[in-house]
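Assess this:
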Amino acid sequence: MDLRQIENIVAIEQEQSISKAAERLFLTQSALNQQLLRLEKELGIQLFERKKHAMIPTFAGKVYLATAHRMIDMKKETYKIIHDISNETAGEISVAYSPERGSLLFSHIYPTFRRRYPNVTFSIHEAHVKKMETMLLQKEVTLACLTYSQGSKHAAIEYVDTKKELMVLGLPASHPLAHLAGERSWETFPSIDLALLRDEAFALVAKTTRLRTMIDDSFRAAGFLPKVLFESSSTATVVNMVKNQVCPAFFPQSYVDPSAPMVYFTTKPKQSWVQTIAYLKGEYLTKPEKYFIELVKQYSASPSN
């Protein structure tokens, strides 16, 4: 079995498309399709159902792919262990993080990391938490800088906690209820009855995010569905709507700015999540990967972050 061919077939499974897999592998669509056809002819059975918008593994395909994943994993782990034993300082770390806070974290810690491991490169994937968990489980990345809330941990994932933060409700300073926050709400985060804002229109983060799940839980607890002014996949955009005196919004505590023209609350039940760096249980971590985790922990422990 040709391991390169196996990796190519796995790419078709992951992308559910020959054209997308070929683009990722820097192959022509025709070349990749011919590889698959030759393999199916060799095996005497079809590995994928060629549907209109997706390549779906057949039962035989699932059997082949299960073994293919194990072989690829064995190769990756073997190479990682050998590099560690030989004290080689070259290699690649595949890491996922959020487009906003995660990219800021990486830009801060990378210069320090590079001074120790100048020949280690990164394969970066930007995604929201739910997608990052899927990427970990499918072994598309080794590390993920994500968050989890109570009851949302996955049994197959190891979590290295770095920081706990509240989910806060921001109100424009000009809002009629802003006075309920009192003094220094960026430190005290007083509780507010969310039902008082029943008639407000909110800026909300996208439904695909873990934060949105927590927000929806808060509205359910308050007994009403919110009016939605707009939704955005960018938390920074949502925060700016509050700063610009447009509407209230929920966001993580790490976005709190004492100098911004807004006040901050929590709602009942008070909700929080934990920032963490995650990897699959049983995953062999190289020395550079362990060092990267330590830098993430140091960055998160800084009072300014």
Remarks:
- The radius of gyration is 23 Å.
